[in-house]
Design a protein that fits this description.
The complex is a heterodimer of chains A (252) and B (289). With 252 residues, chain A is an alpha/beta fold. Helix content of chain A is 40%, strand content 23%. The mean pLDDT of chain A is 90. Chain B starts with a helix and ends in a 12-residue tail after the last helix. The mean pLDDT of chain B is 91. The chains are: A alpha/beta (252), B mainly alpha (289). Chain A binds chain B through residues 48, 50, 69-72, 74-75, 79-80, 82, 86-91, 95, 98-100, 102-103, 106-109, 111-115, 119, 122-123, 126, 162, 166, and chain B through 148, 151-152, 154-160, 162-163, 166-167, 169-178, 184, 188, 285-287.
Chain lengths: 252, 289
């Protein structure tokens, strides 16, 4: 589904991502872990092309997307969320989700100017779709309030609903459960597993190792921008290099 | 009475300018400070076409609006790379350039001497030269502008514009071609500003660069902010109040040498008060970021 080959990115001489390669299989849940500053978010930004890689290539379903614009990559089926949550704060929860939905007619200038009937039909069916997605993440009650009025947990859920609207083939979730209450955390992990059941592919960054162990089928560990381990969760946690770089500190 | 109708005509022209700038600034969140430059292109184009080639203002107003759109597309280019204050400075620069060209390219624009004797609109021999007829003409254009911008903003297309205002990066992550939308918004905004410029020129029948200073761009921006960013009704209210209010000063018996600077000071004061008490504008719902 997603292949990353020898990805490199330097910031002022510091190698944020250093020769990173991995493959994500279709319909799997993979977690990207590593200490703070190990280059996880940078890797996400390089894959979704919000940052330009110094070197390396990214393939989505066998197609080289390394030099595509971020919006084209999103259209090709790579949906991402952001570590610090990027919603559209002053517009309604429903409209936030609707901005993720695909349009054939309504996004065209001429259709808008002439208020085409096709656009209105499309809009009506999209409102239904967006309401279903809000139902799915449990935000139906907040339909009309502006996104900025939501709590942290609700924002995370809204960001997920919005990315679902995009119907991506692969989800890149940047710390989907960070800072959530235990209950919301369970909801979110349940949703991630539900995504997989629906045929989705998920790559997510996470610090909470218990959650990683619970849902991930494969774990990729980064340290100083380099991949130091990759494998099933229980394999990786027994890897010595990983223990000393990351898990070891927790066990002391 | 004629004086009141005259004020209404001017208000109508400013409403067109305010609506079109609201599309750029209020809906899409692009800080543009050179709006009067588009009006200048419209005004000079249709005036020069009429004066030098005897071309009908009906054609001139369209050609002027199209040329203003071309300038809009050129301005859109920096907006693809710059945001916020930097874009404001870049568009401010554009306003200065257009003003300087109008002032210094004497061979074309007659510079500070201006262009006198610009012909009026006419249809089947009927001249739109009295204020009542002209008011009707301006109102038709106000209506067209309002309907166009209302339709554009009241659609999935318009939702994307708001998305760009709220968060460009998130818009891209949602698969929206942000650059394409910015370009369209500048082209459309400039088009209607060009129309407003032509309407002004063929109404006053005289233009010179002093009508198109950067202060004018700021005044239009003020009307947008005052009425409310992202509110079309707000643009009607903002433009009306800020055009009519200074006129009231005349009735206080102030000599024009005091009334003119007073106008600037009152604008400034209103803006300060508004930013403190109601930063989203009278009818707006969205704040500056």
């Amino acid at each position: 589904m997603l292949q990353v080959h020898n990805l490199c990115k330097e910031f002022d001489g510091i190698k944020a991502v250093d020769d990173l390669s991995f493959t994500i299989e279709e319909n799997s849940i993979v977690s990207l872990v590593g200490p703070n500053g190990s280059g996880k978010t940078t890797a996400f930004n390089l894959i979704s092309r919000f940052l330009k890689p110094d070197n390396g290539k990214v393939f989505l379903e066998g197609r080289d997307i390394t030099f595509f614009n971020p919006f084209r990559i999103a259209r090709l089926g790579l949906g991402r969320t952001f570590q610090n949550i990027r919603l559209f704060p002053q517009i309604s929860v429903l409209d936030n989700v609707m901005l993720g939905l695909g349009y054939e007619t309504g996004e065209r200038f001429s259709a808008a100017l002439l208020q085409s009937r096709r656009m209105k039909r499309e809009e009506a069916s999209n409102i239904k779709k967006a309401e279903e997605l809000l139902e799915f993440v449990g935000l139906s009650g907040k339909r009309d309030s502006p996104a900025e009025k939501l709590s942290h947990g609700q924002r995370k859920l809204l960001e997920l609903a919005r990315i679902l609207a995009l119907e991506p083939k692969i989800f890149l979730l940047d710390e989907p459960i960070a800072g959530l209450f235990p209950e919301t955390k369970r909801t979110m992990l349940g949703l991630i597993q539900a995504l997989k059941k629906k045929g989705g592919t998920i790559l997510f960054i996470e610090h909470d190792l218990n959650s990683v162990m619970a849902v991930a089928e494969k774990v990729i560990v980064l340290n100083y921008g380099k991949k130091i381990a990759e494998g099933r969760p229980e394999e990786v946690t027994n890897n010595e290099e990983v223990l000393s770089a990351y898990l070891g500190k927790r066990r002391v | 009475m004629e004086y009141i109708i005259h004020i209404l005509v001017i208000t109508g022209i400013y409403i067109i300018l305010t609506l079109s700038l609201n599309l750029i600034v209020g809906y899409t969140g692009l800080a543009a400070l050179g709006h009067i430059a588009f009006a200048a292109v419209g005004a000079y184009t249709s005036s020069l076409l009429a004066l030098n080639f005897g071309i009908s203002p009906w054609i001139g107003i369209i050609v002027g609006a199209i040329l203003a759109s071309v300038l809009g597309a050129i301005v859109a280019y920096p907006s693809l790379r710059l945001t916020g204050d930097y874009l404001a400075l870049a568009t401010f620069g554009l306003g200065v350039i257009v003003y300087s060209v109008a002032k210094n390219w004497v061979g074309l624009t007659r510079g500070p001497m201006g262009l006198p004797g610009i012909p009026a609109f006419s249809i089947f021999g009927f001249q739109f030269s009295n204020v009542w007829a002209y008011l009707l003409l301006v109102l038709v254009f106000v209506l067209i502008t309002y309907l166009a911008i209302r339709n554009i903003t009241n659609s999935p297309f318009g939702r994307i514009l708001k998305g760009i205002r709220e968060d460009e990066i998130a818009s891209q992550a949602m698969g929206k071609s942000v650059n394409k939308y910015k370009l369209i918004v500048f082209v459309v905004g400039a088009f209607f500003a060009g129309i407003a410029g032509s309407l002004y020129a063929h109404y006053i029948t005289f233009i010179d660069p002093s009508s198109f200073t950067v202060m004018e761009s700021i005044a239009i921006l003020l009307m947008v902010v005052f009425g409310g960013m992202g509110s079309l009704k707000g643009s009607f209210v903002g433009a009306s109040i800020l055009v009519v209010f200074p006129e009231l000063l005349r009735f206080l018996g102030m000599p024009s040498s005091i009334a003119a600077p007073m106008r600037q000071m009152i604008y400034g004061l209103l803006l300060v008060i508004l930013m403190i008490w109601r930063p989203q504008g009278l009818l707006g719902r969205f704040k500056f970021k």
